[in-house]
Amino acid sequence: MKENSISEELLEKAFDYKGYRDMLAGLIEDGKTTGTNQDDWIVDYARLNLQRMNRLDKTWKISDDQENRMLNIDTPLTWLTITEGWCGDAAQIIPVIEKLAVSNPLIDHKLILRDENPELMDQFLTNGTRSIPKTIILETETKRVLASWGPRPSGAADLLKQLKANPDIPKEEMYNQLHGWYAKDKGRHTASEFLHIVETALETVKI
Question: What Pfam families does the database record attribute to this sequence (predicted)?
């Protein structure tokens, strides 16, 4: 696989948002989630993530400014998000990216599972780790990679870094605080930072 492009074959394996949501819901009905770890705690976490996504699907609205900026995009793009159903950050981020995508008919948002596609994931590591979600921005016609964003907004990343620096904080409390940050932020920084990356990538292409 070329480092600066994504193959059509790989994109054909990806889900659209509805297909991804239906797949996750079907797994949960069977007491499962994506990936190889099917321990009860991770399935329970994936079930909670479905609730988070449901809430954002119903409540998150793109702002007028964001919609106008999205409609200014005149280059057909594919956004490919690497994810897993058990990933808490993905549950908080993907519905926001999807709503940005559907605001412009030139944008095609697809989702693909990390653990089934390690060669793809390893092209988009974060500090050497397979952190998700990671959204890759492609020119639809050429499949050329323009940019990528993830795994979380800078404010959430800074908070998690601070929490991890304290060895006395239990992991459960750490992630409770992280999701508290997402709840207060209401998708604002996710949308703002991701849209900035998209616009910057397109400006670079046009120069």
Answer: Thioredoxin_9
